[in-house]
Design a protein that fits this description.
Radius of gyration: 58 Å
Mean pLDDT: 75
Low-confidence stretches: 1-32, 257-262
Largest sheet: 2 strands, antiparallel
Helix content: over 70%
Number of strands: 2
Order of helices and strands: EHHHEHHHHHHHHH
Strand content: under 5%
Strand order of the largest sheet: 1-2
Shape: elongated
Oligomer: single chain
Distance between the termini: 175 Å
Length: 364
Amino acid sequence: MSTVLPSVTGIVPGALPASVPQPKAIDLPTLKKGAKDYLDFADETKEIFYTYLYHRTGSATLARTLLSEIYLDILSGALSVWHFGSLNLMTLLKRAELAIHEHSTADADIDAVYLPSLVWLTDAERASVGTLHESLWTLPEEPQRLLILSMLVGLSDERIAELTGMVVSRVTSDLQAARELLLSRWQPIVTLKDKLQSLVFEPGFDLAAETALRMALVEKYNALRMRKYQWVMIGGIFAVLSNVIVASVLAFTVVVAPPTSLRGTRTEVASLDAVLLRREMELLDAKKAVSATFEETQRIAAYGVSRDLTALGLASALDALKSQQEREADVNRLLKLLKRADTAFEDAIIRPMMAWMQRALDLL
């Protein structure tokens, strides 16, 4: 859908103008300059928004009530110091979903207002359109919003994409899916399926309702600004009084009791000195502990070396003792051998020799 199709009651779609003025977004800093900016925003959005509310609720009376409430509520939020952003038609549409759930939609006037305006349709087609809104209201929120903006308000895919922050291709695909879902629940007659773009209807916003809305917005705006000024003045007075009280307390403390303050300062300095002294003593104790640990480590190392040397000396002594024992064993073995030899050769050598020597002495 490339053309925006507004609706005028009782006029054939072919005679409709090709486009309608598009609402613009307004930044909050601009809004806070004066009520005129918000009135301009309301003027440029109220026709489309009122048409959307009518098809969303099916009641012109409820649509006017919701229109006024939502514009006033958005104004209060926009002037709040905690609200940042911009105002556009999408802001109104999102707020409308919350407001509609708080009201009853039982007094729908589709049969009395909407259907008689579709004079270019046949009686059978108008009778089929009579069940359109009941099927439309059973759809989820997003498809319902897209179908109302496209099929009943008459916005183009490009404008819907601009208002919803979506890309045009996604709007086109989502609209196609939404139409298929609607047709599965609505099931109009065959001739009406090709005339879905001719169902655009704008109920009209009369001069009395528009004047009442503008007066309510101006009064609300002035009341909010006055309340803000009052809070600013109260805050300023409170700040001045707070500064006077704080200054008085400080002056009384400094002028009336300087020795106490000085004594307190000296006490704090002495406390800091005590803390520093304790830290230095702790550091000295730590150094002593490290030194004692080092000395103990050295002593343990020396003891270990001494044990090693002692073990080495014992091994050498054992080796020498073993060698001496071996030599003594050898000597004892030789003595035994000599004794055996003496016993064995005593008769053969010693006794003959003694006899020979005796004879020699006798001869002499």
